[in-house]
Amino acid sequence: MNIETQLIHGGIDGDPHTGAVTVPLYLTSTYKQDGIGNHRGYEYSRTGNPTREAVEVLIAELEGGVAGFGFASGMAATTAVMMLFKAHDKILLSSNVYGGTFRVLDKVFKNFKLKYELVDTSNLELVASKITEDVKAIFIETPTNPLMHITDIDGISKLAKKHGLLTIVDNTFMTPYLQQPIMLGADIVLHSATKYLGGHSDLIAGLAVVNNKELAERLHFIQNATGGVLSPFDSWLLIRGIKTLAVRMDRHIENTGKLIDFLRQNKAITRIYYPGINNHKDNKIHNLQAAKGGAMISFVLDNAYNPDKFLQSLKLITLAESLGGIESLISHPATMTHAAIPPEIRAKLGIVDNLIRLSVGIENINDLISDIKHALSIAKEV
Ligand SMILES: Cc1ncc(COP(=O)(O)O)c(C=O)c1O
């Protein structure tokens, strides 16, 4: 089955009992048991719920894994995966990883003596040099955000396997429609399903997929023991969102291409970050492991333009955190997603004050371009 069809008919397709073409919403906390130790597959909804199970089976199939798990947020999914490790274990982490992932390791798991080290995972030799006895996993995100650094998933997975480590990939930005890390050798895939999978900025959800039964049993135990599960209603919304992922993504990407053409010709923009137009080495690796470049772009405004005025003057594109919804969202990494990083480190990383991140929506591209043109005309200071 092709992925476009799998998104609609994969996993548990409809309801075998009634013929309903959509998975029913099972709003129940518990289930009648027919006798001692005799239940019908469900006992309590933290442990298992048919609507959540439908999205869990679907994401496992889409990512080519053995089992999927639904969590109340992307961070709850990441947290559950971190709980696979124990005190004094160490995780190597992409240096540009999502800030919340860094924060949970730095401020929460550190208290439990789980160690981490930030590494430029685009440099395989550097990663290899960091593997010591205590390292148990390599956690990567590719492309990263907002600077779109690329990590070779196949290369990292091979290196990890050689040393008996797990490879964990946050696949939020690409989704299984564009990139399937388990097929490239990864052990665990994570999603903030809040983003493209949900697709409508109306839910918070996280998903994890594992590539073997042993990890599946351990992660299910953690999911049930710690309880950060995805609610039946959000599971149902998420299934609904996933069904249109392919058409949304195609339109997101088409708009992104047209917007990049516009930005490239505009003197107000001095640099654009997007997989596919980054440096040659990154392009080559990204094109090998992902179908397309996605729909997240970052760009730097020329100093003659005031970034705050630009953002305030947009009428259609919304200044907001988050990404991956049908509506275009824009953000200012230096004061929003990366505000916690000291300015000098930010500057070193390339997160300058006039860097803008845009999650390109599926509106009519001419309206998006007009909005940006108008805002640029107001933001010009000299
Ligand atoms: C790449 C990435 N991973 C994980 C998360 C966390 O997901 P959530 O906000 O659903 O907890 C985010 C949120 O922005 C993200 O961008």
UniProtKB/TrEMBL annotation:
Pfam families: Cys_Met_Meta_PP. The keyword RNA-binding does not apply. GO terms for cellular component: cytoplasm. One of its GO terms (biological process) is transsulfuration. The modification N6-(pyridoxal phosphate)lysine is found at residue 195. Keywords: Pyridoxal phosphate, Transferase. Its cofactor is pyridoxal 5'-phosphate. It is an enzyme of class 2 (transferase). CDD domains: CGS_like. Its EC number is 2.5.1.48. One of its GO terms (molecular function) is cystathionine gamma-lyase activity. PROSITE patterns: CYS_MET_METAB_PP. InterPro entries: Cys/Met-Metab_PyrdxlP-dep_enz (IPR000277), Cys_met_metab_PP (IPR054542), PyrdxlP-dep_Trfase (IPR015424), PyrdxlP-dep_Trfase_major (IPR015421), PyrdxlP-dep_Trfase_small (IPR015422). Belongs to the trans-sulfuration enzymes family. This is Cystathionine gamma-synthase.
